[in-house]
Amino acid sequence: VEYNIVILSNLPKELLPEFDTCEAETKCLICPIKKTTKRQKRIKSSSGKGYIYFCTYETDMTKKTFAYYFDALCSMYESFCHKIIENKTNSTNLIKSDIHRLQHNVNTYNAKIQDDINSLIALEDIKMSEWNTIVPFTTDIIQKNPKKAALVLLKTSKNISLINAEMNVYDFIEDPSGEIQLYAHNIHKVIKLSLQPFFLDFYENRIRPKLGECRELVKIDYASISVVLGHLWSNAVKYTYKDTDIDISFNVSEKFVDVVITSYSIAIETDEISKVLEEGYSGKWSKHLNKSGNGIGMFYIKYLTELNIGQFDIHAGESFNFVDGVPYTTNKFILRLRKA
């Protein structure tokens, strides 16, 4: 909202007057229009000419979660204004592209969560007159389908992690200077925690991650390196040959710790090594297998690693074995981080 003009909003018209009743702090109150509890907040925009406003009627949303979404909304707005000033001609398309990518990825993961839960618990099967049986109804389904419930829980956990990663990546790309916080972390623990959301994917693809020992401390921003590792494991699941190992080892020097990820995976052409690190580029064989995404995973890996004053390199294998016309080889992905 700027100069009493609504620039962007998904509020229905009848709720727009609620904006004027909102104070600066986050607050829960009864909406006089909908007669139900809501949480809302507004702040002055960076231009000083208007406000950013956010509200939710989801009663189970915590204050912390609300703040997370509000910050994301503010980040999008700041990006919107910054790019208009920077390049008036191209800004609209650039902003739409950034927000569309974030929205697309988050919506995709969210849809997967909803589909997985609905495949287990079909709430539409409950009659309105029996709404108060929701807990025993759900308990009975879980007890009858413990394996499926476990799979849904694991997939949901993974997709929530990916949503958080997307939000973190967006923040870093837009304003990395305000986010990077370098502290000492145990590299073994960082790697182990990043692997856990992907255990189900490894299990379903018969891929065995093998983690070596290394208790060195590295100086990193935990959130951004978690995003880096998440993209690495996501690519490993897609491109590693089934029923093989992913070996995660460590090389320690005076100033650095190298995380060396070795996998038997699809070949990367020699002239593609630098290209796959560029935004928007997908490799020849990933396209052939219809496994290419938006070509941003490797770009973010390199970008965020360098923000951590680190280095990311790919050592592509040269000896190929063809499976159904697709070359596989032993590739190494090396993440170099500074010792604390």
Please, could you describe this protein's structure?
It contains 9 helices and 11 strands. It has helices spanning 63-86, 91-120, 134-144, 146-174, 187-195, 199-204, 222-239, 284-288, 297-307, and strands spanning 27-30, 37-44, 51-56, 183-186, 208-211, 217-220, 245-252, 256-266, 311-315, 321-323, 326-338. The strands form 3 sheets. Strands 5, 7, 8, 9, 10 and 11 form a 6-stranded mixed sheet that branches. The model has no long low-confidence stretch (mean pLDDT 79). With 340 residues, it is α+β, with helices and mostly antiparallel strands. It is globular, with a radius of gyration of 23 Å.
In short:
The chain has nine helices and eleven strands.
